[in-house]
Amino acid sequence: MPPHVHRAAAPGHPSRGGRRRDPAADRAILEAALALLGEGCSFADLSMDLVAQRAGVARATVYRRWRNKEELVLAALGSLDLPVPHLEGLPLRDKLVALVDQIRHRGQDTLLHRLLAGLVGEAARRPHLVERFEETVVAQRRRAFEQALSEGVESGELRADLDVDQAIEMLTGPMLSRLILRQRPVDSAAFAESVVDMFLNGTRSRPGR
Amino acid sequence: MPPHVHRAAAPGHPSRGGRRRDPAADRAILEAALALLGEGCSFADLSMDLVAQRAGVARATVYRRWRNKEELVLAALGSLDLPVPHLEGLPLRDKLVALVDQIRHRGQDTLLHRLLAGLVGEAARRPHLVERFEETVVAQRRRAFEQALSEGVESGELRADLDVDQAIEMLTGPMLSRLILRQRPVDSAAFAESVVDMFLNGTRSRPGR
Amino acid sequence: MPPHVHRAAAPGHPSRGGRRRDPAADRAILEAALALLGEGCSFADLSMDLVAQRAGVARATVYRRWRNKEELVLAALGSLDLPVPHLEGLPLRDKLVALVDQIRHRGQDTLLHRLLAGLVGEAARRPHLVERFEETVVAQRRRAFEQALSEGVESGELRADLDVDQAIEMLTGPMLSRLILRQRPVDSAAFAESVVDMFLNGTRSRPGR
Amino acid sequence: MPPHVHRAAAPGHPSRGGRRRDPAADRAILEAALALLGEGCSFADLSMDLVAQRAGVARATVYRRWRNKEELVLAALGSLDLPVPHLEGLPLRDKLVALVDQIRHRGQDTLLHRLLAGLVGEAARRPHLVERFEETVVAQRRRAFEQALSEGVESGELRADLDVDQAIEMLTGPMLSRLILRQRPVDSAAFAESVVDMFLNGTRSRPGR
DNA sequence: TATTAATCGAGACGGTACGTCGCGTCTTTTC
DNA sequence: GAAAAGACGCGACGTACCGTCTCGATTAATA
């Protein structure tokens, strides 16, 4: 009987007897965390006590579900549903613009970005958090980018020797840096368009070409 | 006798009388902070007590100089001297590669990047920290980029309608995102070269070449 | 969730739920405080940290029970059990001597008197401390004196117009002043006897008697 | 050249050369201390910084004169001029009442008593302070009492076997205890009269009178 | 239906860091 | 020299969270 059986009461739990975890508490906690972060509460400000209070739940009820603050915030992060944009049938440029601009939209009210900013610091010494961060946030976006770029290569629109990984960094880096590191708002899709156009066409002047 | 006249003893201070702040203490404290951060101590782990102890100084002596941990770390950050690379006479591509790759070098041992990562979270709710961050770290790099890009435009190598701000995001974003947000090492200049080449040439296939 | 509900877990507390305060901690803390004071540690020397350490308890555990040092010391003071002397059947003079001399005995090892001396200074600006001091230390002694003196009046041994309050001051004042203010030891019951005899007989020479 | 040459620059100082200590500072400091204590500032509240500030003097100037807070407060205490009441020609009872009541008057505005209360605590562990307290406050009063009582014995008014020391405790103790320990105001001379009358006549009922 | 076991609320507990304050000493400049 | 100003080392203060641990009261599946 380990001291913490986090998520032990998840579906498929073999135990017999005992009260079930209240699924409403799960939701209330995550929502409370998100709400607080959205209200300008930094990662460090966000205390477990505050979250529990806001969720109308005892502190232990939070700890029963998530080992610590990072895990909680990460879960809150993961609980945001991330709408995948419709790319079917769009031309390559528009696909890429949609994907890049989606990064901006995912942080409604800049909540997500603040949240990510908070995690960045903690992540410094917790490699597994970085991994989870990658899985949760980066991975699926990555796949969408990979697909769009591969199609571009196959269709001949993009160079055959394109380094896809590198290309993804090129496309996502500017937006991420702007939103999370420099914490500046991006108000329109113009930023994404500009990034994609530079990415596709480069910046050399090509008069005679 | 204000309770906190931080940095009051800075150069040019008009006061007469009173013991001067020991400049050795300033250095010792900043170095201690940097050393600890460099040794894998995260922003949250870094306690004022630890810094003071390492610096061989009383805790109050730290607080006399910096109001709190964030201010201290920011100062430590600013105290890193940032070598400006020699760009004179280099072709545009090499200039840009040097500038982009310098971002990587500035965080020797990833110290600076860890440090920045730690600040990112705190900065979320302290706008003035973001500003200071911009001034301290971003501004002078920005100027170097601006100059190189402007020269490129003037020489006709870059498009006349280039949006310089946007271009800087394109060049620095990928590296920053990789080093700070995703906390992945970048071992060679190849990354910077790749970024610059994509930036200059774009990624479209160009059959006529 | 009030920040400080000191003594909330006292007997008769209606709350349900929540871990009970460890009564062993209460005792350990009070004993630690008394021990330290008894070992020659002055009121100012007595640090909360030291008390907690000696009691084998976290500092917060002390603060959870008593708001600050004064409250703690006062509680420690109150925790001394004060043996009430057997007065039944004694002649008036002996009753009074026993009561006056008890003041001396209550501060075994002068612990109590040192303690009181320490409180006197703090009490200067905290009226409620003076009140608590009265309740804790003075009140029950007062009642014993009142009873003895009233009996003396009723039996005709003492003047009918005796001002009882004043009389108590007369009896206790000299001993208190000597022990606490002047901090001089009183080694035998002779002092008490002398006080009582003067109190009863006065000091006028009475040749004709 | 000892680190502290307290009071070295007092009148009669043999040194040659160097600036003289400003006697106005002496006064200003003592007055500041007394004023603060009089305004309800307890001994613990009274910080050297506050005193210096109020006196319009640097903190070091205070320390140059008195080694620490206790010494300063004690000096402030001593600086109060203590009017000796005119006893010449009064009957014994009136002499004693005047002396006892003088204890009350000496603490104008209860300043002195608060001050003494503050010292009591510190004195617990500083024997020399108690001594100085005795010298400063107790001694000269003691002599006045001794004289009055001796005269009473010689004149036959008081018992020949009177223990003078004990008698002084009897007379002063109640007032001191009331003013300093219990911190209760005494508004009229009635208290002193009552003390003296009990002292002289005792409290036994005396049917033949 | 009774038993049993896990959850829930509340909140105490040992830690650790925070930022402030006061002490008594020291250094520096001016008078 | 003394005086004003103020830095310095030290150490206590009281607060705030952290993550763990009891409690008694609920609540569900099992026996």
TrEMBL record, chains A, B, C, D:
One Pfam family per UniProt: TetR_N
Region (Disordered): 1-23
Keywords per UniProt: DNA-binding, Transcription, Transcription regulation
Keyword Transmembrane helix annotated: no
Location of the HTH tetR-type domain: 23-84
PROSITE patterns per the UniProt record, alphabetical: HTH_TETR_1 (PS01081), HTH_TETR_2 (PS50977)
Residue ranges of DNA binding: 47-66
Highest taxon in the source lineage: Bacteria
Family annotation (InterPro entries): DNA-bd_HTH_TetR-type_CS, Homeodomain-like_sf, HTH-type_TetR-like_transc_reg, HTH_TetR, Tet_transcr_reg_TetR-rel_C_sf, TetR_C
Protein name: TetR/AcrR family transcriptional regulator
